[in-house]
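Weekly structure sync, notes
Attendees: PL, DS, HV (note-taker this week)

Item 1: 6-carboxyhexanoate--CoA ligase
DS walked through the input record. Source organism listed as Bacillus paralicheniformis. Sequence as pasted into the shared doc:
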Amino acid sequence: MKGEAYYSVRMRASENGPHEEGGKHISGGERLAPFIGVKDAVSDLLEKALSHSRGKPDFMQIRFDLVNEPIKFVQPLRIETNETKSAEEGQALARELISRAGVPKNAVDKAFQGIAEYSDVRGAVLFDIHSGRRIDGRKQKGVRVSRLDWPEADFQMWAALCGMPPNPRLKEALAIASKVCEHPAVVAELCWSDDPDYITGYVAAKKLGYQRITRMKEHGDESGCRIFFVDGLTDIKSCIDGLEKQPVFIRSGGKT
Ligand code: PML
Ligand code: MG
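Item 1 (cont.): predicted structure, written out as tokens:
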């Protein structure tokens, strides 16, 4: 791995035209691969977008770029599963966990008030824990966490050790949460899927690890959510830069 050139491979797919022309988001994905792995990465991402429960894309973009910066290795967050019986129970638990991570209660309330609006944002929303306001300034685009991957062999080993299903969706979400929570400005992340058939979501934080919540919304609901609760007194431009550009491999190294 050391010294080898790596490529960031990115995919986004939408229906009724490209995202920036109002198309509906269908799927997105990220890989980091050596040159020899680019073909497989492209074909995995293509497959992901073509077989998606949100619909049939009529626009897709897959691009790859050479990564010049050194790749950082990050441990996956420790994982815990919380069984909830309804979306209401799941969201109440999420609020409690976000507060426990260090976000003031009034900022949590304000973030939840904005969720319907934020679900139209393509990437993540950055929410300041002090002012209780959205501060990324990215409008409908939001912040897309990029340049990350979790090599499959390490993920499979981790899943077996933790007794977790080797679910690609869990792999992707835990990789994002681990990269995001590693950043010093990030206090917590709240996420659930925009896929109508996937109702598990999570709250993640350095303090709490990755807290899966089995029911965060109702089946059939196509609105998702990804909010990063950040300390707005820090340099937010450099935080966004790190989330988008710092290349990261998740590596458990056989630890849980
Ligand atoms: C997504 O698919 O966009 C997010 C999935 C979040 C939950 C993943 C899990 O822990 O199962
Ligand atoms: Mg999705």
